[in-house]
């Protein structure tokens, strides 16, 4: 593909995203490329990079375009991106939209008028409101301010950065050192992660899905923060563990490893496709102490097993604000209403899951959100309603899990963020049932 054809295809992808505003962008992009199998790998990457670039900067580009009185079409967004982000100059944009074969048709007089107004403006305009300047949705701003205070600009920049590729070594199959050596022999250098004893970071995000190490189940892709949640669960050999909201079993796998494949894990979820994915991953990783169960309405599974689990991990559905750098479209898609609905849902899930914990057992509540409303405020409300549970200070939960070094933070709970920990934004609270 020529460079101009790639720009044109990126605009077509933006239009496809725009026509499915509630669908996750990566699902739309997968469909887009599946319908265009003639596009090769290098072209795909170039097209997706440009389209994601626009998605990342969408709020700021909208702000600029809105001031000219125009509507943000795919073509205008791309042209504004080339102008304001790539700083290609007006002549460069005209050249990209030159109407030659496979290139975009020339700019219309109206598009030219808009772009002439944007030409020379800084992307971060002094008149921009705080939310747009920081690239944060209005609905999340109060919560983010409460979480980060003075450090908000730094934290917002962290949530915009590019995410590293982290691997969790499958201790059922190998050691961290041996996995690193296997990957190095396949041309993938890695570094040990800062906090997780099982983690390897791939510094330049090389593709690893075709490596032997991955295909043989020696490593799984999992952000270091996510690994730490599984670690705090402190699941030990012989225990009975429930992974409530198990999804595709990311944390089930990690807990199976700390349990040395001994004891039982129930991986529970309401989604059939996710549990199907979980079953495949468990097999590939050689886990044989876990079973999946689909939670359905009217299901008596939870009731029948009340107060019988040593550990219950609730990895609750959330706004995903902590993973915005991986899913830049989520900050555009999620609304205030979604946020309110999720808070209600999290409360119900936590209540139900808590009934599974035996006296003396631990309940771990986790999200990939950095908003206190989904995190410590949920924990506080839960503890107000459940006098039989106490919060375990992070340092104690960390030590319980066999960790010698300092815990990743000083607060009562674990609150990770890209700018402070180099991980995605995650929250975890460890609660112990007394009676
Ligand atoms: C954050 S994701 C879990 C990710 C997973 N633990 C992992 O590490 O890969 C949240 C999950 O909660 C599930 N979920 C949503 N509502 C639920 C409910 N009422 N009960 C149990 N699981 C639910 C979703 O299907 C989704 O898989």
TrEMBL record:
Pfam families attached to this UniProt entry: Methyltr_RsmB-F, RsmF-B_ferredox
Organism superkingdom: Bacteria
Annotated GO biological process: methylation
Active site, per annotation: 368
Residues engaged in binding S-adenosyl-L-methionine: 269, 315
Residues covered by the SAM-dependent MTase RsmB/NOP-type domain: 155-434
Keyword Transferase: yes
GO molecular function annotation: methyltransferase activity
PANTHER family recorded: NOP2 YEAST -RELATED NOL1/NOP2/FMU SUN DOMAIN-CONTAINING, RIBOSOMAL RNA SMALL SUBUNIT METHYLTRANSFERASE B-RELATED
UniProt family annotation: Belongs to the class I-like SAM-binding methyltransferase superfamily. RsmB/NOP family.
Keywords of this entry: Methyltransferase, RNA-binding, S-adenosyl-L-methionine, Transferase
Matching SUPFAM superfamilies: S-adenosyl-L-methionine-dependent methyltransferases
InterPro entries listed in its UniProt record: MeTrfase_RsmB-F_NOP2_cat, MeTrfase_RsmB-F_NOP2_dom, RCMT, RsmB-like_ferredoxin, RsmB/NOL1/NOP2-like_CS, SAM-dependent_MTases_sf
Protein name: RsmB/NOP family class I SAM-dependent RNA methyltransferase
């Amino acid at each position: 593909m020529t460079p101009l054809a790639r720009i044109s295809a990126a605009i077509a992808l933006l239009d496809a995203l725009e026509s499915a505003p509630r669908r996750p962008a990566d699902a739309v992009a997968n469909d887009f490329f599946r319908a265009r199998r003639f596009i090769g790998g290098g072209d795909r990457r170039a097209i997706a990079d440009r389209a994601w670039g626009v998605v990342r900067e969408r709020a700021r580009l909208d702000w600029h375009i809105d001031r000219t009185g125009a509507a943000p079409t795919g073509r205008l967004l791309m042209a504004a991106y080339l102008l304001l982000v790539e700083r290609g100059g007006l002549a460069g944009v005209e050249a990209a939209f030159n109407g030659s074969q496979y290139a975009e048709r020339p700019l219309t007089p109206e598009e030219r008028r808009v772009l002439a107004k944007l030409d020379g403006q800084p992307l971060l305009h002094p008149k921009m409101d705080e939310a747009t300047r920081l690239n944060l949705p209005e609905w999340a701003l109060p919560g983010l301010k409460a979480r980060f205070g003075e450090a908000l600009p730094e934290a917002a920049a962290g949530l915009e950065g590019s995410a590293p590729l982290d691997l969790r070594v499958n201790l059922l199959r190998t050691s961290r050192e041996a996995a690193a050596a296997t990957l190095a022999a396949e041309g993938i250098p890695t570094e040990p992660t800062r906090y997780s004893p099982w983690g390897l970071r791939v510094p330049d995000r090389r593709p690893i899905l075709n490596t032997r190490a991955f295909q043989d189940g020696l490593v799984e892709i999992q952000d270091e923060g996510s690994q730490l949640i599984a670690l705090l669960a402190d699941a030990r050999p012989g225990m009975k563990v429930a992974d409530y909201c198990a999804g595709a079993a990311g944390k089930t796998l990690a807990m199976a490893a700390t349990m040395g494949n001994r004891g039982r894990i129930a991986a529970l979820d309401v989604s059939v496709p996710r549990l199907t994915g979980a079953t495949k991953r468990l097999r590939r990783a050689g886990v044989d102490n876990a079973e999946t169960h689909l939670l359905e309405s009217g299901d008596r599974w939870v009731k029948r097993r009340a107060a019988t689990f040593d550990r219950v991990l609730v990895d609750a559905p959330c706004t995903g604000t902590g993973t915005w750098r991986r899913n830049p479209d989520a900050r555009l898609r999620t609304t205030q209403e979604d946020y309110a609905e999720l808070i209600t849902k999290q409360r119900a899930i936590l209540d139900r899951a808590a009934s599974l914990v035996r006296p003396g057992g631990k309940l771990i509540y986790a999200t990939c959100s950095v908003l206190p409303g989904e995190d410590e405020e949920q924990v506080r409300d839960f503890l107000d309603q459940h006098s039989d549970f106490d919060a375990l200070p992070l340092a104690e939960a960390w030590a319980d899990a066999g960790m010698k070094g300092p815990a990743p933070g000083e607060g009562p709970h674990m609150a990770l963020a890209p700018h402070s920990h180099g991980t995605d934004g995650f929250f975890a609270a460890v609660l112990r049932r007394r009676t």
